[in-house]
User: Fold these one by one.
Assistant:
Number 1:
Amino acid sequence: MPRAPQARKKMYVLDTNVLIHDPNALLNFEEHDVIIPMTVLEELDGLKTGKQSVAADCRQAIRTIDRLLGDASPKEIERGVPIVRAKKAAPLGSLSILMSTEHTGNHSLPEHLNDNKIINNLASLQARHKSRDIILVSKDINMRLKARGFGVEAQDYHNDQLIDDIDLLPMGYKVFKNSFWDTIAKVETVQREGVTEHILRREGELSKLNINEYVVDEQGFVGKVVDLTEDRLVLQDLHQRDLMSEEVWGLMPRDIYQALALNLLMDPEVHLVNLTGSAGSGKTILALAACIEMTVASKQYKRIIATRSTQGLDEDIGFLPGTEAEKMEPWLGAIVDNLEALHEDDENMTASVDYILSKVPLHFKSLNYIRGRSFQHSLIIIDESQNLTPHQIKTIITRAGNGSKVICLGNLAQIDTPYLSALSSGLTYMTERFKGFRHGGHIHLQGVPRSALAEYAEANL
């Protein structure tokens, strides 16, 4: 019997933005060869200094390359150094550095741009290795288009892309038309410490539910998944009227989805809450009201740390005058706006907001200053988290120390970072990764309750 032909080993050439997006990217190409152009090393070197978050990612990428190359000689690096991922594991694939070469003639791009230098080097590499598949990996769409136009195969970096369609992302709840109980053949109901729980077989639509997700129907039933196994799940019976009338720091939910979000935010057993939704759906005001309630009223937490990912913030913050808190104020105006909205019915709104800011230990932090810190008994609000890479979101969430809670807010339709899309965003990655986490929850807020004008603009502009 003839042996099946082995798949051809490929040569993947990594662009700078891939190593910034994921500093450990070169470990994720299995048995294939990984090539780093010299131009990429130069770009990493130029970006490695400073306090921007990109500088820390560059330094980590450089350290990973140095560790893998070890004390290999220049000749060995040119041929390719075997990539060892663990001490006892056999090496898979190789890592090499592609030297810049001079190009003459009409078949090369002008080399005043680093992107063009890399594409020219790939074209030369392709001419030398006609029997190998040589692929450029870049997060830059235009770079990929230029490479394809020049005859070089190019693709996006998909290793941390867990889903193929954003519509497959969990919503945090399942809405049933009419009555949920019409779809259930058998149920066992128990009363435990004043709580009603329904034990159901995990089949049909129920098989798709995760821990801390909700069941909602048009008849007013709301259930929360509090436990599940392979073949059964336990729904805690929540009363919709109670959820809708629960007041948190003077804030009442405007719809059932906001009520579910507040239920998650106020749950002491949930340590990570992830709220997504369009502009004006209430993400920030819900998070802020719950955080003030839990620090001032119930004193479950010691402080609130608010931060956000904003394109340009890393570069601009250093040039703003004042302390770190004063530098952050222009970027965190949304927090103050929502504080004012919470107290708009007070006799003196300005005095109320000033009182809250003096009473509540609310700290505005730049993402750059969160690296290396550990926050105990804190509420950490990460606004605009759709602009973070999976690596960055991991860096921030791992800062949560003992007794802390992380609240991520974001809108996947408003990504401002050039090399991210809704599918490759750290917010998408985290939502998918944490859907089975017992102490985590996610709600996608519906509608635009901000105003009739905002709702009409969202739908028609």
Note: The longest strand covers residues 221-228.
Number 2:
Amino acid sequence: MSKEILLVVEAVSNEKDVPKQVIFEAVETALASAAKRRFEGEAKVRVSIDQRTGDYKTYRQWDIVVDEDYSAPDSELTTDDMEEMGLALGAGEIFEEEIESESFGRIAAQTAKQVIVQKVREAERAKMVALYSDKVGKLVHGQVKKVTRDSLIIDLGENAEASLPKEHLINRETFRLNDRIRALLLEIREDNRGSQLVLSRTAPEYMIELFRLEVPEISEEVIDIRGAARDPGLRAKIAVKTSDRRIDPIGACVGMRGARVQAVSNEMNGERVDIVLWDDNPAQLVINAMAPAEVDSIVIDEDSHAMDVAVKSDNLAQAIGRNGQNVRLASALTGWTLNVMTAEDAEAKQLEESQKLIDLFVSALDIDDDLAIQLAEEGFASVEEIAYVPMEEMLDIDGFDEDLVNELRTRAKETLLNQALQEEEQLDSAKPAQDLLEMEGMDNHLALVLASKGVVTMEDLAEQSVDELIDIDGMDEQRAATLILTARAPWFAESE
């Protein structure tokens, strides 16, 4: 039987291309599993195979525990038992007793076979992960092996398979058995069945890798791809840049008579690709990304990381694109929230915001309209800026002297102080309910702030939205969502 074991290990190892050590461990596990059937309960059995001769021995094992921890007579012995047997084994050690080995012929039983098959599969998956771990984010090629309702199973060769989920297929494209396919290795996903290679043809990185394949200047790092956005199967934008002034990055990506970009487009089922020149100036980058629409003006709001993009009325539809496609892709490419509007609407919005600012200065600083207008035109956007901006900067304003600057700064600080006192009074008068104070994740100060805004009970908090809570100082989106879910917990308990 010893030679038979060696023959089986040799054959399986060669067939599955996995280390012999893995097969030996599988056979040992299978033999131990067969031997355990002779005992009742949860007996522990170990099999050791001599990998040179194929001979093997079987041992029954017991864990040594102290008397008070003794609970499993099938797999445990106490330290007192060891003393009676004259053995110097303490708690935490293992006592082994050699028992009769099972015949290797019984490995033909279904259970034993499954152990070997499972071990081989685990080894194959581990080998697959090692082979493809450095290829994540790269293009891979394969052949369609199976088509299911949810995905395509792709044979990558070398006993490696990958899954291409239907949601990662480009719109309207279909593949049949044995079709050749190219995709991006998106990730190696771990689940109950082990490691799984997941592919994508819709990820922006797929388009980037296609350009890297078609444009030598990109693979040679002469041209750098700075960003990409896609509406898979319909339209995409990609931003490129080069530090070599002799090279036109857009022209290089387009290729002679559009050959390079057309090759990429064909691979993506005819997806139209706009190639955009990257610019480190966010406003200029947005102007480039909005092409082919022409931008009249841009107003940047750093706090909300958004831009108001103004275009001519007859250019508005092109700027927005079908179903908002153009502005959506431009926003994804640049990382800015873009609000597209006509030049007339932009001017009206700017005038409205300017008037609000002027009214604020008139009310808060007790000044006339002309002075408020001058402050707004100089770029002051809040009372805080007037209170704390360096005096030298304000003295540079035409018509401003030291007395005027000091007076404006004093009035601004008094306004801020009054506002702070009013907020404190609101907090002092606010009385949050006990359930709000005792709610998980709540602290006294936040409860007082919420109560001052009319959120007194857990029920009040449960009815809030995340957007309403993130206006509170120190509140981020994640904490707001967590607090709201905690407050809504009683709702779900009642429904159950």
Note: The first helix runs from residue 2 to 16.
Number 3:
Amino acid sequence: MNKISSSKKNASVKTVINILSVLAFLSPSISLGQPAPGYGTAPYDPAEAKASRLQSACASARSEITAAKNKIAEACRKAGMGSGCAEKAAACSETLGTDSFDTTDAIGTLMGLPAGSNIGGSCPQMNGRDYYDEKKRLETEIKDTQKDIAELADDEAEIKETFNTTIQELQQALTDAQQELEETKTSLDEQEREKISEFQASQNAAKEKLREYNSKIIALRSEMTNAVREKATKMLELTAETSKYACNQEYTKAAESYGKVNATSNKSHISKAKAQKAAALDAFNKCMNRFQQARISLNEQSAAKMESINDQIRNAEASTDELNDSLNLASTQLDQMKADTAKRKTQAEKKVTDLMTLTQNKMQAAQENMQTKLKALATKQQSYTEALNRANNSLMTLGPAPKRGAEYTSEEASSEISAQTEIIEDVKATVASNSELAAQCHLGDAAKGSSKRSRSSGSKSGRK
């Protein structure tokens, strides 16, 4: 009950009753036979005056009781509590204000509701307008908060999808780079094998050519030796002693012819002998000249032959040197190619290694970014969940729904009814304290009639 409101109303009622009491019972005595003030010369009748005062006091008491009961009926109507309004209001007031343990209340506490929520009771805690406005507000808030939570779930899914897409793209880029590295290494190895194969083939061909040139040089040098030996042999046949010996034979043969001619003393024979002698000397000189020409020809032929052999040897040696230079150059180029291949492999591996490091950093950054966003979403979700719980709790603690037209809560109606009931009881007690007034007023019957009218009014207002 609203004790403060009841105290004020009781005080006002007691003031009214006191005034009635003073007017009815505490006015100064007027002696019989004296005219009443304001009535001229009419005789004063104490009994009639007393009856009038009792009637006035009774009417005032009835009026107070009627006004109080009308207010009770009005409170019932505004509370929309229907028949048995006073009893219901009192019961609700007692229920809502109780401190006793209640199973339904305990369940509400376990659900997070505040103590005394009385979720299973039948006593509205709010008037119709406030209840439905608050209910609509809470339902809207719950719906909006649920929508916000659902959107958070979508946001979380989008964040995770973006993260997964980023990770997949980074992994794919790394996989492609690693595959490219393997392809590059395979290509470089294949190129290196081809170069080595070409090098080995060219080396083998060059070595075969070198062997041919070396064989040719050996053959040419052998031919040179044979040419020198042949020249020496032939020169032995063309020495001065050999030529003189051969030419002397020719001269001796010619001289024999001369001796035969000279044996005769015939002048013609002498001339002929001289001529034959000259012919013998000429044959000798010609023979010596032939040997000289033969030596010159042999020297020239041998020199030309040996020069040709020497030229061939020099050409073969030059070709051999060129081949050796080519072999050395090819070996150097092969080493350079291997070094270049190794360098390109190192560069390709470094590129992949750098990409791996960069990818790792990007993945870590993506992970941290996702965690930051998810943490922010978790904070929002916690905030929304708390707001949703508060709204749900508030919705559950609204209690039973009052009638839409109800202007009072059961608590307010109970307070008003209690106050007006105390007014009635105070008026009755004041009247009952005077036997003459009680006999005149018969408030018990009036009270019953008024109570019936109150319940009837409350019932009608409730049906309305």
Note: The two ends are 26 Å apart (CA to CA).
